[in-house]
Amino acid sequence: MRSTLRCVDTTQLFKGVLDLAVLAVLREEDGYGYDILRRLRAAGMSEIGDATIYGTLRRLFAAGYLTTYVVPSEAGPNRKYYALTLAGNIQLHHGSKVWRGFTETMNSLLGERKKP
Amino acid sequence: MTNLGTDSQPAVNRAMEASAYLAGVRAALADLPAALREDLLEELPGHLAEVQAEGAGSLVERLGSPVAYAAELRASAGLPPGPVPSAPSTVDYRELARRCDEAAGRLAGYEKGSDLLRDLLPGWWVLRGVFATVLLMATIGLHWYLGLVTVPLAVVMAMVSVRIGRASRTWPLPAKMIMIGLNGLLSLPYAASLLSRLS
């Protein structure tokens, strides 16, 4: 039971920050699905499922935060590249501020708890 | 197959594995509108090819089952979860009863068997009155002068029975249960005489 609970907790935490993480990765450089996934995993978000990245990209695109363009691949099907729109940049800026405030609050909360 | 080079065989296998995986995910999204489904699947062939190119392990080992992949895709895209396939072991008894009802009704030219029974109710009420009369006469003994009143009495009893039957539709459940009990009581002597004749 405990392990299930912990797993759900992690999933819920990821859900909340994944949108922001994807936007942050795309600020550096445009990328296609698997490329974005690899960059997120390399950054330490190893728990992201393959399907999750495509669903998230689709949602962010629908929200107007991303734009796409197709680049032919030397091997295999064409690749769909994602890039931040202006709205995506604004969302990233806003999201960063919210995240920083949130982590400060959580850090102080958790820090206080640790003290005897 | 002999004309394929040594490198082609794994390539064919990989293509088959990828198309089977793609078909599995597509099937798990079958309830969605075609345009939305194909939109969700657009990047999957390329992804599968790239995962396979990295080597090490089958697609199912690397990505989970196609059904799980589809569920994750839905959840992350903000779509509601797909329909849960109903277990074939659970029988829907209500549905089964409805079908039997319809099949029985069709035999008699009715839409449903229960419609026929409803139409037959007044007939049963008349019969109940007659049965009650016969039982009454058998109890008090069939004298010749009583035989004269049997038919008028049966008619009156039938009318009373119909009246009770019509009124009972609006009765509360306990009253209905009592009435069913009385009906059973009435039928007991008939059942007993039938049984004694059989034995």
Q: Can you offer a commentary on this structure?
A:
Chain A is of the alpha+beta class and 116 residues long. Chain A has 4 helices and 3 strands; from the N terminus they run αβααββα. Chain A has a 3-stranded antiparallel beta sheet. In chain A, strand 2 and strand 3 form a beta hairpin. In chain A, helix 2 crosses helix 3. The radius of gyration of chain A is 17 Å and the shape is globular. Chain B folds into 2 domains: 9-76; 113-198, no CATH class. The termini of chain B are far apart. Classes of the chains: A alpha+beta (116), B mainly alpha (199). Chain A binds chain B through residues 18, 32-34, 49-56, 58-59, 73, 75-80, and chain B through 39-40, 42-47, 49-51, 53, 62-64, 69-70, 72-79.
Topology (elements, then pairings):
The complex is a heterodimer of chains A (116) and B (199).
Chain A: H1 2-28, E1 31-32, H2 33-42, H3 50-62, E2 66-71, E3 79-84, H4 86-114
Antiparallel strand pairs in A: 1-3, 2-3
Chain B: H1 8-28, H2 34-41, H3 44-53, H4 59-63, H5 66-76, H6 93-107, H7 113-140, H8 144-168, H9 173-198
Helix pairs in contact in B: 1-3, 1-5, 6-7, 7-8, 7-9
